[in-house]
Amino acid sequence: MKFDVVIVGAGVTGAMLARNLSRYQLSVCLLEKENDVAMGASKANSGIVHGGYDPEPGTMKALLNTRGVALLYRAAEELNVPCIRNGSMVCAFSQAEEAHLEALLRRGAENNISGLSILSGDEARKIEPHLSGEVTKVLHVPNAGIISPYELTIAAVGNAMDNGVSLCRNFAVSAIAKTEEGFVVTAESGETVTGSYLVNCAGGNADKIAALAGDGFFTLIPRAGEYMLLDKAEGYKAKHTLFQCPSEKGKGILVSPTVHGNLLIGPTAIPVETENSRDTTPEGLAEVVELSLRTVPSVDTRQVITSFTGVRASEKSGDFILQESKTVPGLIHAAAIDSPGLTCCVAIAECLTALLAQAGLSLQEKESWDGTREDICAFREMKDSEKDAYIKENPAYGKIVCRCETVSEGEILRAIHQNPGARDIDGVKRRTRSGMGRCQGGFCGPYIMQLLSRELGIPMEQVTKSGEGSQMLIGELN
Ligand SMILES: Cc1cc2nc3c(=O)[nH]c(=O)nc-3n(C[C@H](O)[C@H](O)[C@H](O)COP(=O)(O)OP(=O)(O)OC[C@H]3O[C@@H](n4cnc5c(N)ncnc54)[C@H](O)[C@@H]3O)c2cc1C
Q: Looking at the domain that runs over 88-142+222-312, which CATH code has it been given?
């Protein structure tokens, strides 16, 4: 198949680019090596909309963070993605750290961020009562927020598909050749697609994709961040996202509510071998516990319901790489998209679209473009009387499958059929929250497997947890 633009990688960068390109009269194909979208850093991160005080002024990170916050809030609304402007606080515990807050305040002003202020520890504790008595001052960042990063990515891909973009899953790019036809991109399976332009949004593999395309001028440095997600019973311990002072290692351990009411603590910043080094470690989690208790001493870390690791893809310059190749015309890189890449994703998509236009891509707007998307879980927000009427029309919504998170069969069917449809148990989980509660899918898992089997027309033995190789059953017992 021949496309105008082929995008490698369906993380939030590729997803937002696909959505932005779907505004125009173009054929666009999004390639993803996994069985679902949002399977790299876009699945496992802090989910913070960063206020913009941290990036070095003049860098791409600073420019795109400043522009990106408002764009992201707008996209979240259009795509019906959970997102809350809860604000953040950077906490100082000493005079030296107070001086750091002053420096961040100045940097924020240089980056054109408004609304920043420094509060005393007592002023901060009035609005954040569980904050440690050791906190002496905070930088208050009212425009910061929290968002569900994988739901954002899923929604952006779904919206792009609704507007004509093709998604190829299980397409692990293993060769790229530039021919007269364009970029011929081959998967490990032998499948090929061709594109006049190629955009490299491959996250932690972006250096390998660049090398395959004959332009391997950078090397990514993987750094793991370990987290613990605590039960909703702990969610009330922080209203704002509470950071410690950033260092050269990163933005520090945070304590933050999530959009779904849990409490998130982490991440560490540990150099690792590869972007696939996603195990949690006893040492990493011990660090998460110790440092988060410093900010909020009353956090009950025994309320942990899961732990996970995300891997940052950084580059030695410390900035994003957003540019057309100097040696391979038509090849655009979106690489080293580490933090605040989620915050910047819509601004990055705009920037990549401009780079494609500079490279010669013609952008003719479509009249039919619709940038909105219906929320799979809208049913939950309905009043009881509305739910009653809805269930009469759609009886599957009256059957609760996941008791911990109160997810109905109707929502699960929707998740399987709405673009980009869930193909495995974890895909259903990311779209509906089924299995994300205390029992972690112990109760609802088998029934979700039956629904996947029935709706996808595959035997139960082929239903997977998360793509090929994770089959749950090996056969029937007689
Ligand atoms: C621990 C941590 C915390 C973070 N916290 C925040 C935060 O709070 N706020 C914020 O703004 N940013 C944060 N970030 C940064 C943010 O997560 C990233 O900037 C963003 O997710 C990058 O998205 P991406 O699409 O570029 O990469 P990814 O999400 O990694 O996507 C790349 C995709 O490419 C696919 N791929 C790779 N190789 C191939 C191949 N050969 N063929 C086909 N497909 C391929 C992968 O499977 C993947 O789906 C954090 C990152 C980490 C790791």
A: 3.30.9.10
